[in-house]
Design a protein that fits this description.
Chains A, B: Belongs to the acyl-CoA oxidase family. Chains A, B: It comes from Gordonia humi. Chains A, B: GO terms for molecular function: acyl-CoA oxidase activity; FAD binding; fatty acid binding. Chains A, B: Its main location: other. The structure is a homodimer of 652-residue chains. With 652 residues, chain A is α+β, with helices and mostly antiparallel strands. Among the domains of chain A are: 120 residues, Butyryl-Coa Dehydrogenase, subunit A, domain 1; 142 residues, Butyryl-CoA Dehydrogenase, subunit A, domain 2, CATH 2.40.110; 182 residues, Butyryl-CoA Dehydrogenase, subunit A, domain 3 (Up-down Bundle). The first copy, chain A, has 24 helices and 11 strands. In chain A, strands 1, 2, 3, 5, 6 and 9 form a 6-stranded mixed sheet that branches. In chain A, a hairpin with a 4-residue loop joins strand 2 and strand 3. In chain A, helix 6 packs antiparallel against helix 7.
């Protein structure tokens, strides 16, 4: 590959070509944010006190307003520009700068702004959108409670409607109802989008819970003092993200006007009558949550950027740092010349490529969905995008966390010094696997949706009810035989039915292996649940016994869809040299996935012993093949120079 | 197991019995340090500035002096008490408190003190030991240089003997010769044990390098100012260990008296004549390094304690935190009732047990070795202990890092708040895989020693020379057929030759599987090198191609010896209930190791497909079996209450 194919393409050309592939549709936004990162020196710091860091965040957010990104996430008719893809991409790109700023921006414009934009109606858009964009209205997103992280439906905060005054009364009835970990709640936020159980009664009705709804609640006055009935506190220092003022909020019978219910999917009339365009309480709840999908997409994307930053840092260092030179030799080896060092970093670089292009597709689909008229959206397509967003969020944040930890370790003692920033990045990225959906929960959510063929109405079932649902409804669950993408289907048709007989560097073989694994896991999971039900087994026990199987279904699905997207994107690359390099990147991505799960593939006879040995050798060989392109591969990430300007890279 | 066997043993009894197993020979020391951790509130803090934290460290070290631990590491004849095992165990136990203090104590009494004790002679013991113990002499250990982390033999700092004045001149000739990452060098240290290339000439000789030696150099005056010719600087903030003042030192022709060469293994006469009891430059070098083995043992042990602290924290939280309660049920499940949560934590708990007892054995062997007359020590035994110490350091620090990261993630958002300390522990433990020997280097060192049958004189070879050495000398390298431990040999004899035919819960089968893997890897590694040499292949390329194979040899060896020790220790437990629980812990340890490397075992036909499936199920089943004992298992770690007194455990 390094010979004839590449000879007409210089390294610079190659970098540019690869960068085009990674940058995708919103490349202009990426470039603008890259320039801004350099101009405003958006890099993580360890020399600031917490108050200084927090103040810096507000300044840096203010500096972003004139650039237009903050307006991109809101419809033109509400005072924005209506470019959702650009809004997400801008915040993603801050992952090359400082994740504290990324999270602050994400909370203000993505989560708080997204709640107003997507759950509110005209009166809220008029009242809050402009201020949210230009920071006159500083908001936070008060969903999580101390007692309820992943189980939003069980939130305890109540919003009781009082028809006599036309107000809601927001209250935290128990200690576990306290809003917790809320970014912005410790200091900056003046408003909160509060998720609470709505309780109301129409004339003649008994008071009754209507499920979780979202309310805009003013929590602080202009001077930053808690308003009466509101008690905020500070979560204190954390493992990272020092610029994010995470806090807690307790509500003690706080009254807000009826108008401040974000009433797009559920409304309360002056007399207390509840109404909603969606009849099922559960479907209503998941529709509301679904409109907030943007946060999950953004977190996955930004984690991806941070992972690429970590890998670029470690690869650049490994290209300058010399170690253990042969005593009688002049040509000292750099770290990246060692196979073990290549094995540490290059498979992760390959994964970073695959996930980056998969993430781009999710962003584009989100853009299409949220740019159109929401009432026209196909609920099935919405549901599928939610599952895909969950899948990519879980996969991309896990990859980022692993990449940054590995990068730190690969840089030895230098990697531990804050001046080289990997230690800061490691602290910052750590929580991405937890917030906006804990990865363990998301992987199960993905699997459950596959097993119920995205049935909308199973969302109200607990674990046991859900097992019974699967067991009773599913007869022969399996992956669709026809791939959604033409290119994938063609490649599958073009490859041998039995992957063992096909060339392992053929993308059709690769696709088939990952599809077969997912299909196998899906069918056996369904069968286990049916068997269990037939035997009248304890459903709770069945759930316990199959939970790790479910998670594996989720993982297999994530890796399969990422490969399909990557293959699709590579097929559209016109330059032959770039395409050739990308194919080897894809091979390394696939080989390293196979190697990681070789036990499964062998155990279920999807791979022979001979092929297994070839896979292990293949990872080594591909590391060697890609070694000469390592610099170009990470340059193509387009990390701003300022983010890589650290002492260990400057001085080797 | 939970029935008849355990019925006569209460949970408290069980905890005490298990704790006895883990505490081992220096249990009194452990208890004393536990009490001291509580008494002096030795826990990591995130509310202190760097200057405050550093000051706190000196205070806390001072408070430890009267307890006697600091004197334990020095011979009675030098002013200590000569209980090496107690010295190491005391510092290990600080891993339950604050790793910053552990590192500061380790540098002062272990590394600096160890250099004086083991490389010095009577004059140094008289001059420095007492002050090192009681902190009148604050020292640092100046080995690592900016350009040379793992390759100590290539250090550039020079110590040139000047016969005209009877002094050495210490100098950093290049930028890469700067001493770097040195704990204590930024602020507290007044003295440094400096490793430098000794250059001297006897009468009529040419000046010549004599290899790396160690010198005591005064670097600061009593007020903390750099002495003339010495320039110290601060490494600044790091990913953790905020109380450790890591710094850099540059020497510009600093003169020290001839007496300050630590001259046990190499001396310079007044006229410049060099002499040494060890002829070979390389053997001399490795003998000097070998006497410093205590630091490596201590770091592995303390990491183990920190890993246990992390696991105890996460298990305790998982026993109080309720999540996703079934809607119509009163009995909410705690996190640890979920199989996925058990799978996250319990296999790591099992590994923590196995490594803890293996670590105890290494400490005991170190104690025996360093308590005797060093000139009597069997060089072969010394070498084997060095390799074993390297193996356990690499394995134990890697386990600790993984355990703490997993613990953080298993505690979700709460785990990210510094008030719950897992985030601090995660930052502190991260560098343990790097310092006192980077794990990647240590795993190769283990493998190389196995391949050369611990040949002492291969240590001066570079990678290429080493490959040639193995290829030319080794005919049929293989694991010794007879186990060193009688109990292991008996179990092996008692099990079927073909592990596939034996019960997988039989320890003989388990031992055989891990022995067979190591043996297979060892033989194939040797064969690859011989083949390569026979073909006249490029030795550098052979090294590159086999490097990941070597690392796998190292890993297989580490896991095998840990299992052998664990089996040995379990065999000596008298209480039947405790022994039964420990056997299930051993099973989970083995099953999870096998599961992790299932690809290899299947690929090389050491495990059948049927057995592979049984292994996967077995991990699940064992998690279920041990779930009722989870609390007792972590209570037996004996983590002081103060270390577990964090908000998330107090409040759930």
């Amino acid at each position: 590959m390094t010979g004839a194919d590449a000879e007409h393409t210089t390294a610079t050309d190659l970098t540019d070509l690869l960068r085009d592939v990674l940058d995708g549709r919103w490349s202009a936004t990426r470039d603008a944010v890259r320039a801004h990162i350099a101009a405003d020196d958006v890099v993580p710091r360890s020399d600031l006190s917490i108050p200084e860091y927090r103040a810096r965040m507000l300044e840096q957010m203010t500096a972003m307003v004139p650039l237009g990104f903050p307006a991109d996430g809101f419809a033109a008719s509400h005072g924005g520009t209506g470019d959702v893809g650009a809004a997400v991409t801008a915040i993603e790109t801050l992952g090359y700068g400082d994740l504290s700023l990324m999270v602050k921006a994400g909370v203000q414009w993505g989560l708080f702004g997204g709640a107003i934009e997507n759950l509110g109606t005209a009166r809220h858009h008029e009242r809050y959108v402009r201020g949210t964009i230009d920071l006159d209205v500083l908001g936070c997103f008060a969903m999580t409670e101390t007692g309820h992280g992943s189980n939003v439906q069980a939130l305890e905060t109540t919003a009781t409607y009082l028809p006599e005054t036309g107000e809601f009364e927001i209250t935290s009835p128990t200690a576990s109802a306290r809003k917790d970990y809320i970014g912005g709640a410790a200091q900056h936020a003046r408003y909160a989008a509060v998720f609470a159980q709505l309780i109301t009664a129409g004339p003649g009705e008994e008071q009754q819970g209507r499920g979780v709804h979202c309310f805009v609640v003013r929590i602080r006055d202009d001077d930053g003092n808690d308003l009466p009935g509101v008690t905020t506190s500070d979560c204190g220092r954390k493992g990272g993200l020092p610029g994010v003022d995470n806090g807690r909020i307790v509500f003690d019978h706080v009254r807000i006007p009826r108008d401040d219910l974000l009433n797009r999917y559920g409304d309360v009339a002056a007399d207390g009558t509840y109404s909603s365009p969606i009849e099922s309480v559960n479907r209503r709840f998941f529709t509301m949550l679904g409109t907030l999908i943007r946060g999950r997409v953004t977190v996955g994307a930004a984690a991806g950027a941070a992972g690429r930053l970590g890998l670029a840092t470690a690869v650049k260092y490994a290209l300058v740092r010399r170690q253990f030179s042969a005593p009688d030799s002049d040509d000292e080896l750099v770290l990246l010349d060692y196979r073990t060092h290549q094995r540490r970093l290059l498979p992760l670089v390959a994964r970073a490529y695959a996930f980056a292009v998969a993430q781009n597709e999710v962003v584009a689909e989100l853009h299409e969905l949220q740019s159109g008229d929401p009432s026209e959206a196909d609920p099935d397509a919405v549901r599928k995008l939610e599952v895909k967003a969950a899948a990519i969020k879980a996969g991309h944040t896990a990859l980022a966390s692993q990449a940054v930890s590995q990068a730190r370790e690969a840089c030895g003692g230098a990697g531990y010094l804050d001046e080289n920033r990997l230690s800061l990045l490691r602290g910052d990225i750590d929580v991405f696997t937890t917030f906006e959906g804990d990865n363990l929960i998301l992987r199960q959510l993905v699997a459950k949706n596959l097993l119920t063929a995205y049935a909308a109405d199973m969302s109200d079932l607990d674990a046991v009810g859900w097992i019974r649902f699967v067991a009773s409804t599913v007869r022969d669950i399996a992956l669709e035989k026809t791939a959604a993408r033409q290119v994938v289907q063609t490649l599958l048709d073009d490859s041998d039915e039995d992957p063992e007989d096909s060339d392992l560097t053929h993308p059709g073989t690769q696709l088939r292996l990952l599809r077969n694994r997912e299909d196998h896991l899906l069918r056996t999971a369904a069968a286990r649940m049916q068997r269990a039900s037939a035997d009248d087994a304890d459903a709770q026990e069945v759930f316990t016994e199959t939970q790790d199987h479910l998670i594996k279904v989720g993982d297999a699905h994530i890796e399969r869809i990422v490969l399909e997207i990557f293959v699709d994107v590579i097929g559209s690359v016109e330059d032959r040299a770039a395409r050739t390099v990308l194919k080897r990147v894809r091979d390394l991505f696939v080989y390293s996935l196979l190697e990681e799960d070789l036990g499964w593939f062998l155990m279920h006879r999807h791979v022979s012993v001979e092929r297994a040995k070839a896979i292990r050798r293949g990872v080594n060989d591909l590391c060697g093949t890609l070694r000469p392109h390592a610099d170009a591969l990470v340059d193509a990430f387009g990390v701003p120079d300022v983010a890589l300007d650290v002492p260990m890279i400057r001085h080797g």
